[in-house]
């Protein structure tokens, strides 16, 4: 059988934005290549009967990015966003379109400069709403030259109503700020909206508001404030409650289902225990369906609001991972979602939530005949006795007791988790490295999600401390189990995983090779240039301008003189989350210190790579680097 390769990793087709039709009989979704052939992404819309009686039907095709499908209340139309008419323009933007759900010619409904976002149908089906740039609506012109004035960078968006009968668009609100998400009430008289001062992410910590907006008068009322953007927002069928998955101010890392009673303003939260809620939807006026990360897997629970009782549900096979959000039909009977597992890439599933859902897609037939590495859950003990979980992949055809070169792949975040996913993409290197003959350890050190707020907060004010030691104890476990050759150890990761990689090679000489992907190497300069400064600063005892020495003390470049490990540094040139200067600082320092190193910068790539050619080059270089330095 064939091994998994970088070429296969960049060939995947990935589904997204699953939407169940109001009557629960059909489900629509977006399909996109994981690696795009051109700098501008492309995607298409598909649908299928939930009972699987027809083959998947493609609604849109061509060289365009069609996304955000939304069923009309009667199911006859699908609204969506597309850049098809502006794709070749420097200011490529998405406009609102509608197409008959049975197929036909699409009709454009908007033509706003800078495009529109967040489409939604009004409950009566007479109009759609989108968000539009406030400055465009106010008649502002773009600067005559291509300069970037910092105070003019924010481009907040407001909700605008687009009548289907051709009437003039009208602004619904809010009066100020940027709308990140919103949802119509069942009656159509109000909207709940998530708002912050601007469209910049650094405006969201402790400044995110959930407001109630009157669709007729534009009157607005603040309902509550959140510590950051919520994961989901949903009205109960009777319009009396909102369910929000988010974090309240003063409770960092404690993501919960928040229930808001609109009749009296009472706010309550559901204790997630040792899980992390990811999404919540309503099955009835007093019943919630909650999706959570629970350790290495996801799970569904049915929760009764009145009694506070819950019971687990298994609408999809165990042993996998459901990617939020899910979608429910108007009658709350049909559930649609995207599920993947360690041995199968993401697919669309749908059906009655109280039965096992049906898999409706087979998006990657090219994987037939490919031998994948087994990906087994493992657990070891940290230095302080804490149980640490992770995954171990071993190459296909390897034998028990065979000492293998081991690569540790550390996830980003740090508030994230290596779950039961298809670890086989440009970002998730497990199957690619295993296919090349390496054992791969995927650790979930303290700071990861899925095990409750206390575990997620356990590396706060201690970045590179207990979490780094958790990783090293995982390596010890692999050596003790007879899996890893202690003389052929490598380490790598992306974003925060890149930081821990750079940190580890400055504090141990155990690793013979390292790959730092989009790595934080200098916390002081990173915090000073990132688009999420407040979110980084909350991980430290105080802000940078008050406690600069703490940031420097936890910066890998402070320990350049200790590093001996050959290090490959890879970075997207357009990365605003971890700007490419972070990679350059490490590279120039290692070069001057005489450490074998290489820096590779990828044009147009942000924190997440989207161009196929760059994804492929990245994976080939990673494999080649470990093959070079971990050879016997």
Describe the structure.
The structure is a single chain. With 632 residues, this protein is mainly β. It contains eleven helices and 38 strands. It has an eight-stranded mixed beta sheet with strand order 31-32-34-33-35-36-37-38, sandwiched between helices. A four-stranded antiparallel beta sheet has the order 2-3-4-5, with no helix packed on it. Strands 6-7-8-9 form a four-stranded antiparallel beta sheet, with no helix packed on it. β23 (287-294) and β24 (297-304) form a beta hairpin. The chain is globular. The two termini are 25 Å apart.
In terms of topology, how is this protein built?
Elements: E1 2-3, H1 6-9, E2 13-20, E3 26-33, E4 44-49, E5 57-58, E6 66-71, E7 77-82, E8 95-100, E9 107-108, E10 116-121, E11 127-133, H2 134-137, E12 157-163, E13 170-173, E14 178-184, E15 190-196, E16 208-214, E17 220-226, E18 232-235, E19 241-246, E20 256-261, E21 267-270, E22 276-284, E23 287-294, E24 297-304, E25 309-313, E26 321-328, E27 334-341, E28 344-352, E29 358-359, E30 370-371, E31 375-381, E32 387-393, E33 404-410, H3 430-435, E34 439-444, H4 453-456, H5 466-480, E35 484-494, H6 496-505, E36 513-517, H7 523-527, H8 533-537, H9 548-553, E37 567-572, H10 581-593, E38 597-602, H11 612-629
Parallel strand pairs: 1-30, 33-34, 33-35, 35-36, 36-37, 37-38
Antiparallel strand pairs: 2-3, 3-4, 4-5, 6-7, 7-8, 8-9, 10-11, 11-12, 12-13, 14-15, 15-16, 16-17, 18-19, 19-20, 20-21, 22-23, 23-24, 24-25, 26-27, 27-28, 28-29, 31-32, 32-34
């Amino acid at each position: 059988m064939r091994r998994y390769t970088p070429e296969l990793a960049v060939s995947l087709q990935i589904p997204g934005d699953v939407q169940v039709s109001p009557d629960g009989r059909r489900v629509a979704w977006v399909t996109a290549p994981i690696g795009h052939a051109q700098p501008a992404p492309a995607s298409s819309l598909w649908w299928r009967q939930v009972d699987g009686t027809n083959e998947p039907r493609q609604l849109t095709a061509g060289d365009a990015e069609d996304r955000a499908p939304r069923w009309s209340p009667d199911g006859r139309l699908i609204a969506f966003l597309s850049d098809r008419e502006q794709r070749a323009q420097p200011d490529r933007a998405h406009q609102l379109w509608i197409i008959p759900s049975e197929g036909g010619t699409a009709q454009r409904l908007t033509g706003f400069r800078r495009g529109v976002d967040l489409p939604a149908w009004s409950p009566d089906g007479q109009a759609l709403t989108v968000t539009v740039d406030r400055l465009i609506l106010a008649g502002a012109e773009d600067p005559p030259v291509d300069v970037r004035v910092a105070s003019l960078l924010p481009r907040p968006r407001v909700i605008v109503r687009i009548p289907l009968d051709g009437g003039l668009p009208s602004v619904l609100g809010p009066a100020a700020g940027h709308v990140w998400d919103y949802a119509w009430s069942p009656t159509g008289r109000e909207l709940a909206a998530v708002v912050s001062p601007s469209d910049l992410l650094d405006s969201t910590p402790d400044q995110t508001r959930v407001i109630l907006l009157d669709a007729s008068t534009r009157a607005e009322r603040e309902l509550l404030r959140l510590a950051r953007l919520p994961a989901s927002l949903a009205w109960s069928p009777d319009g009396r409650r909102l369910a929000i998955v988010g974090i309240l101010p003063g409770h960092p890392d404690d993501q919960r289902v928040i229930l808001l009673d609109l009749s009296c303003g009472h706010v309550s939260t559901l204790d997630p225990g040792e899980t992390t809620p990811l999404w919540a939807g309503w099955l009835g006026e007093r019943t919630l369906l909650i999706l959570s990360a629970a350790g290495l897997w996801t799970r569904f629970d049915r929760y009764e609001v009145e009694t506070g009782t819950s019971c687990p549900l298994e609408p999809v096979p165990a042993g996998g991972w459901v990617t939020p959000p899910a979608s429910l039909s108007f009658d709350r009977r049909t559930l649609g979602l995207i599920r993947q597992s360690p041995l199968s890439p993401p697919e669309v599933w749908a059906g009655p939530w109280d039965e096992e859902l049906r898999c409706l897609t087979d998006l990657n037939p090219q994987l037939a005949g490919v031998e994948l590495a087994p990906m087994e859950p493992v657990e070891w003990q940290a230095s302080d006795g804490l149980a640490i979980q992770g995954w171990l992949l071993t190459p296909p055809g390897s034998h028990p007791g065979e000492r293998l070169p081991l690569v540790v792949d550390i996830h980003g975040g740090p508030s994230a988790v290596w779950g039961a996913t298809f670890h086989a993409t440009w970002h998730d290197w497990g199957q690619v490295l295993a296919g090349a003959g390496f054992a791969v350890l995927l650790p979930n050190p303290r700071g990861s999600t899925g095990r409750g707020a206390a575990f997620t907060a356990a590396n706060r004010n201690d970045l590179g401390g207990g979490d780094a030691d958790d990783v090293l104890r995982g390596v010890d476990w692999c050596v003790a189990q007879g899996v890893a050759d202690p003389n052929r150890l490598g380490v790598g990761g992306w974003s925060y995983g890149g930081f821990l990689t750079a940190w580890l090679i400055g504090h141990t000489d155990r690793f013979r090779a390292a790959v730092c992907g989009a790595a934080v190497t200098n916390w002081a300069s990173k915090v000073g240039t990132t688009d999420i400064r407040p979110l980084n600063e909350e991980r430290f005892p105080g802000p940078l301008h008050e406690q600069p020495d703490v940031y420097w003390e936890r910066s890998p470049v402070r320990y350049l003189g200790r590093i001996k490990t050959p290090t490959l540094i890879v970075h997207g040139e357009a990365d605003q989350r971890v700007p490419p200067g972070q990679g350059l600082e490490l590279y120039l320092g290692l070069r001057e210190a005489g450490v074998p190193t290489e820096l590779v910068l990828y044009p147009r790539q942000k924190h997440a790579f989207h161009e196929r050619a760059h994804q492929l080059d990245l994976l080939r270089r990673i494999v080649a680097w470990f093959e070079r330095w971990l050879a016997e």
